[in-house]
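Input structure tokens:
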């Protein structure tokens, strides 16, 4: 309710201030036309800002694309710079190709004649004859004799010519790459001609910042006008809401006082602890021990002393009394008590046994298990008590125990 009051009033809650709180009267009256005019001006600024941001985004993309093209141009210029050297290499390779082409043609021509051979001697006229189709004919010397050395070198010359032709093709490809790079540079430069400069982008960012500031100022103006307009229209509603939340704060405060430790819980606790303390008083008296009590602050005392100030044996008596009381009140009728040996012999055999016998005979407890470390088993066990001796983790039979 305090937070709701603060949310409505915009001020921190005060019990006295909230009684007759009312918002301050608006000094200047604001009309609905003024609010609408301010909203229209704000919308115009929002539209201008959106358009400027869109334009700036497109400019940045164009600038980024131009920067990318500039990098490509720089890479292409490296190829263009190789054009003279590649052109010279192509010229050299073409000259080399022409030389080997001439050598191949010359070798082909030289090796194109007939192969010389030794004619036969005619047995009749002793003239030079050749044997053709089984008949002797007059020997005719070849018009041109083939050059055997040229024929031998012709395959080698042809390989050199093929290598020179490949070199020319590679050099022509490299030169074409340089020429194509030059054409690409021209196209990229044409594309980047209209790209906005870094100064233009900076000016656009400055214009957007100014529009944002104008927009923010107009937003504040609209907010101020709306608050003034709504404050005048809702003043009575705010007063009514604040009064209602103040009433809730008062009601919650009264409820908190009633539910505080000193209020209703204290009364309920006092009524509930009374029977418990009566039972603790009776059990302590049966055993002949100092009375165990529970205070309104849930402090446990033994003979009027706080639990933390008790000795070990006193704490055992206090714990045992509380455990027996809980077993009785809860209806469980079962209690387990360990370290029975912390008591001295009179407290064990007289006081504690008297309390246990009273509960067992009176039917308030069905089962009570008491454990302790003793030097020897009980010499005599009452009828209402069953004693069990455990040695080295094993249950010792009563007859074995007697024989021992």
């Amino acid at each position: 309710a305090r937070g709701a009051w603060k949310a409505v009033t915009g001020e921190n809650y005060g019990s006295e201030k909230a009684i007759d709180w009312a918002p301050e009267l608006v000094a200047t009256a604001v009309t609905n036309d003024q609010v609408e005019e301010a909203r229209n001006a704000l919308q115009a600024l929002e539209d201008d800002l959106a358009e400027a941001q869109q334009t700036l985004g497109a400019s940045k993309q164009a600038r980024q694309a131009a920067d990318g093209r500039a990098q490509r141009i720089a890479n292409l210029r490296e190829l263009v710079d190789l054009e003279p050297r590649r052109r010279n290499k192509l010229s050299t390779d073409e000259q080399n190709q022409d030389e080997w082409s001439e050598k191949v043609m010359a070798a082909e021509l030289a090796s194109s004649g007939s192969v010389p051979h030794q004619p036969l001697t005619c047995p009749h006229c002793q003239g030079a004859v050749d044997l053709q189709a089984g008949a002797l004919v007059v020997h005719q010397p070849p018009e041109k004799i083939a050059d055997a050395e040229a024929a031998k070198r012709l395959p080698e010359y042809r390989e050199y010519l093929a290598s020179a032709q490949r070199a020319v093709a590679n050099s022509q490809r490299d030169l074409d790459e340089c020429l194509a790079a030059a054409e690409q540079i021209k196209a990229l430069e044409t594309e980047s001609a209209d790209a906005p400069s870094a100064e233009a982008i900076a000016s656009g960012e400055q214009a957007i910042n100014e529009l944002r500031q104008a927009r923010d100022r107009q937003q504040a103006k609209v907010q101020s006008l709306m608050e003034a307009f709504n404050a005048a229209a809702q003043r009575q509603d705010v007063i009514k809401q604040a009064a209602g939340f103040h009433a809730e704060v008062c009601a919650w405060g009264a409820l908190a006082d009633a539910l505080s430790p000193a209020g209703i819980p204290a009364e309920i606790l006092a009524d509930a602890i009374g029977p418990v303390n009566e039972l603790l008083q009776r059990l302590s008296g049966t055993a002949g021990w100092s009375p165990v009590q529970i205070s309104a602050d849930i402090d446990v005392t033994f003979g009027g002393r706080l639990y933390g100030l008790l000795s070990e044996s006193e704490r055992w008596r206090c714990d045992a009394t509380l455990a027996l009381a809980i077993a009785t009140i809860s209806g469980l009728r079962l209690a387990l008590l360990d370290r029975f040996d912390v008591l001295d012999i009179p407290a064990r055999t007289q006081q504690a046994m008297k309390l246990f016998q009273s509960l067992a005979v009176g039917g308030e407890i069905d089962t009570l298990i008491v454990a302790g470390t003793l030097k020897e088993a009980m010499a005599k066990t009452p009828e209402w008590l069953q004693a069990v001796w455990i040695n080295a983790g094993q249950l010792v039979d009563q007859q074995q125990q007697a024989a021992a």
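The radius of gyration is 61 Å. DSSP finds nine helices and ten strands in the chain.
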